[in-house]
Specification:
The protein is α+β, with helices and mostly antiparallel strands and about 220 residues long. The chain is built from nine helices and four strands, in the order H-H-H-H-E-H-H-E-E-E-H-H-H. Bound molecules: FE2/S2 (inorganic) cluster. The site of FE2/S2 (inorganic) cluster has 11 residues, from helix 5.
Length: about 220
């Protein structure tokens, strides 16, 4: 962790009566900095919290939102649970793997995009749903998912798409995780967003980088 991240970690630790209670927020911080939860990061968090490496690794491996291997700049997570599967997630996953020339969990040769399957992203009304880093893209068909990946390969991140008027779920479970961990909105660089003109990062699920319009 950088000195800045370490200062943030100590600030988070101070919010709890026991240092070990800050484990999840620290794992989020670590992943934001390294892109994944590395063995060295696990050792550092263990030392900070007075835990064993096994205790930290046990938590990091239990929760699927923590990556144990390096990923591409854009991690595409396709929901494979029932609602999304009934609405074509299998076909989307297959098409993305074929386009990128990788198996599930693989990263394309440019290092830009990793594709994986995940369980329910808690946005079932928008099925099929995929997530790019921390943002949800809902109601995509296979063609729209392929167009999204083409843009990611060009290092373009379109604004998230929600199920539509009246959507009841969080724009992004990953954003929600950050807020629940006491970390506020995910950093712009993690979400793939760029700072808004004249100031800080744009926040929330409706933000974008201004590089393009809504996906079809
Ligand atoms: S089943 Fe896909 S978001 Fe819930």
């Amino acid at each position: 962790m950088t000195e800045e991240t370490l200062a943030r970690a100590e600030e988070l630790i101070a919010r709890y009566p026991l240092r070990r209670s800050a484990l999840l927020p620290l794992l989020f911080l670590l992943q934001a900095e390294d892109g994944y939860v590395s063995p060295a990061g696990i050792a550092q968090v263990a030392e900070l919290l007075g835990l064993t490496r096994a205790e930290v690794a046990g938590v990091a491996t239990f929760y699927t939102m923590f990556q144990r291997r390096p990923t591409g700049k854009y991690l595409v997570s396709v929901c494979r649970t029932l609602s999304c599967q009934l609405r074509g997630s299998d076909e989307i996953t297959g098409a993305l793997c074929e386009r990128l020339g990788v198996p599930l969990g693989g990263t394309d040769s440019s290092g830009m995009v990793t594709v994986e399957e995940v369980e329910c992203l808690a946005a079932c009304d928008g099925a099929p749903v995929l997530q790019v880093n921390t943002e949800n893209y809902e109601g995509l068909d296979t063609q729209a998912a392929l167009e999204l990946v083409e843009r990611l390969l060009r290092d373009e991140l379109p604004p998230p798409t929600l199920a539509g008027e009246g959507a009841v779920t969080e724009p992004s479970t990953a954003s929600l995780n950050w807020r629940l961990a006491g970390l506020g909105e995910p950093p712009a660089e993690l979400a793939g967003r760029r700072p808004a003109a004249g100031g800080g990062a744009s926040g929330g699920g409706a933000s974008g980088d201004g590089q393009g319009g809504e996906l079809p």
